[in-house]
């Protein structure tokens, strides 16, 4: 799944606001980067069709909410890239995470270590 720059910005906005209609999203981006109401409507519709937003009608307008959390989308995008480029027996993914972790601070490294340990425990329990 590919995301355009505006799609990423709209998702980030909705993760912060939790819910918004087209006019609210447009009002925010009109100040920040310009563009038209139609462009924002199209972007929200694309994100909805990609399964990244949910929507429900309130009056005459749809209210949009993120359907996935930020970390879930990051995981989906990483999985998509790795499925396209990395074979199962290849160590490129491990090397890539090692390279990425060069930019991690102590707290992020500790969190990664805790997630790895939790995954190991889950695997052990599955083997019993």
UniProtKB/TrEMBL annotation:
Belongs to the BlaI transcriptional regulatory family. Keywords: DNA-binding, Transcription, Transcription regulation. GO terms for biological process: negative regulation of DNA-templated transcription. GO terms for molecular function: DNA binding. This is BlaI/MecI/CopY family transcriptional regulator. It comes from Litorilituus lipolyticus.
């Amino acid at each position: 799944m590919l995301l355009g720059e505006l799609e990423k910005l709209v998702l980030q906005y909705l993760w912060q606001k939790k819910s918004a209609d087209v006019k609210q999203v447009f009002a925010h981006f009109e100040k920040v980067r310009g563009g038209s109401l139609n462009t924002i409507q199209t972007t929200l519709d694309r994100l909805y069709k990609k399964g990244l937003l949910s929507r429900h009608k309130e009056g005459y307008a749809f209210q949009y909410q993120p359907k996935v959390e930020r970390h879930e989308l990051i995981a989906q995008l990483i999985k998509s890239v790795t499925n396209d480029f990395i074979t199962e027996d290849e160590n490129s993914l491990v090397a890539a995470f090692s390279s990425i972790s060069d930019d991690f601070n102590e707290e992020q490294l500790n969190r990664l270590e805790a997630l790895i340990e939790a995954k190991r425990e889950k695997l052990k329990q599955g083997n019993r």
